[in-house]
Fold this sequence. Notes:
alpha+beta; two-stranded antiparallel sheet
Amino acid sequence: xxxxxxxxSHLIKNEAEDKMGIPIDIGDRxxxxxxxxxxxxxCIIGKxxxxxxxxxxxxxxxxxxxxxxxxxxxxxGPGIDFxxxxxxxxxxxxxCIYIYRIDDSxxxxxxxxxxxxxxxxxxxxxxxxxxxxxxxxxxxRNLGADPSHHLHHEPAFIILVEEFLRDRGLNLEEIDVANVxxxxxxxxxxxxxxxxxxxxxxxDKATLTLVDKVEHLRRARCRLDHRMM
Length: 229
C-alpha cells in the first residue's frame, strides 16, 4: 500500500511538472518542458530506426542526455563510441536507444530517464561543461577542425568529472553554480578557484582527437554489423 501511494504521488508530480512547463537544458538545447524534451528524443529515435546515430549534433545531444541519467557512470562504462537505434530488449516491438561502448559492449538506455526534472547534479554537470567550453573550441581551432570532423573525447567526460571530484572528496550535489552573466542557460561555478582547478585538470587529462565523421561512421557500421552477426 505504501509503495502504491508513493508511486501515485510520483506520477502526479511528473504530470504536474509537465503542465507547469518546468524548463530543461540538455547540452546546448533548451526545452520549455519535460514533454518537449521527450518529444525531441522520440524524434531522434524515429529518425534513426535500425541505424547508427550519424549526425554529430544528434550524437552530441545524446551524450549530454546520458549524463543526466541517474546511472550515467554505469551506462557509459569505459566510454561511448556511438549510439544506435534498434528494437528494445526482450523482443520489444518498440525502438530504443543503445550505447555502443569503446570496448565493443552494448547497453540500452531509457530516454525517459534522461529527462527527469533538473537537479543540482544536472546543473553542476552543465557548469562543468561550460567551464571548459572555451578550451574545447580552442582545441578544435588548433587542430584545424572543420564541420566534417568529429572531436573524440577520451576518457569519457563523465569519467573525468567523477575522477576529479573523487580526488577532492566532492560530489556534484556539493557544487554551487550560477547563471553565466549575459546567458539564460549557461552555468558557472561560484567557487572560481575550483573552476580554474577543473579547467586545468581537464586540459591535463583529456585527450581530444579529430576523427573524420564519414570514416568514423563507416567504422562504426562495420563494428556494429560484426557485433550483431
